[in-house]
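User: For documentation purposes, I need each entry recorded in a consistent format: the amino acid sequence on its own, followed directly by the corresponding structure tokens. There are two entries in this batch. Please keep commentary to a minimum and don't merge the entries.

Assistant: Recorded as requested. Entry 1:
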Amino acid sequence: MAGVGGAELAQHAAHALHGVDPAPAADGGAVKVVVEIPAGSKAKYELDEVSGLLALDRVLHSSVTYPAAYGFVPRSLAADGDAADALVFCSVPLVPLCVVRCRVVGVLPMLDNNDKDWKLLCVAEGDPRLAHVREARDLPPHALREAAHFFATYKQLEKNKSVEIGEVQDAAAARRFVLDALREYSDEHRRSKL
């Protein structure tokens, strides 16, 4: 990454947020994702930014589970001040803190308490069962409905929480979102060094 030198790189080498090269394709169509939460979990894990370890943020209050693995694009910064979130579809279970090379196929616009909190929709590139998926519309329609329903309802039983979701956008919109988040992280990192 531009602007990160030897000692600083060594400091972040094992850190999932700062030490993993997202290795984006030039157009943002493929990127690495660090998994925080496996599919089927009710536990909301988040990466501790200081230690680089996973911490339990909360157990979901609603009777829903994550419909696919959930994580983030390393070295990215989205509008909510966190790394870009990603839902990763894969035909096998993905464990927390594994790094998955993903193809970006869409993005789910979302507002979390009126703050922009978009969710990338990705497929694991190494999964031959999903090799045909280039756009979100190539996923099974029920998988998309389930993902949208999950994000629309997963905070309903929490106090003072509101979520609004929009229509799934295509891979081109998702690629722009990825490139913007990677650029924002790089710009923020440079600003913090001044």
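Entry 2:
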Amino acid sequence: MRLVACIVFFLCAEMANGRVVKERNDAFIGYREERDIGKGAERAPERIVLTTATGTIKLRLFHDQAPSICAVVRALAQSGGTNLNFYRHEHVPQNWGQTTGFFGPPYALLQGTLGESVETMMGDENKVPIRQGDVALIPDTRDFFIATAEHPEWGNAHAVWAEVTGDGLSTVKALPFEPSFTRFDGTYTTTWLNNSIPFQISLGSE
């Protein structure tokens, strides 16, 4: 009987603890608490860190939604890669948005390459509308862009494999836009940096 009483007490305590954790999680948007189940402290979430002369840009990988792309990027972060750089940076126009129907030029993005050590990727994972701070692959390339505004005009054309976290967008916006030159392909006018901005890639934590 004493053993049965101990078991019942333990189960009731666990259920009560679970209710308290759930109530705290429900009370605060974005708050998540995991119960201690005897396996030690959880590691901080892994991040990809892009380091420039201006500052760092931390990315949270979407492993579940874009596993193939994330595996390539993570492996690159472990090796360090070579010739990684940003080569295109375009402002967010003042009247950008769905209410005006105007989406550039300029096109509200920072575009770069993962370098020649990475094979070109199809980019057929997690094709969803682009939100501000999303990091997406340019199809059939090794290049990517960071969106500095929402891009509903592109629909589901790009594979989103990460998002910028923390104050990373402040670093993105602080990177130079000039000197630059423009190209016209018969339909679109785009802006390209005269001097690419090198960056290093590594693994980090929040």
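Summary note for entry 2:
The first strand starts at residue 46 and ends at 51.
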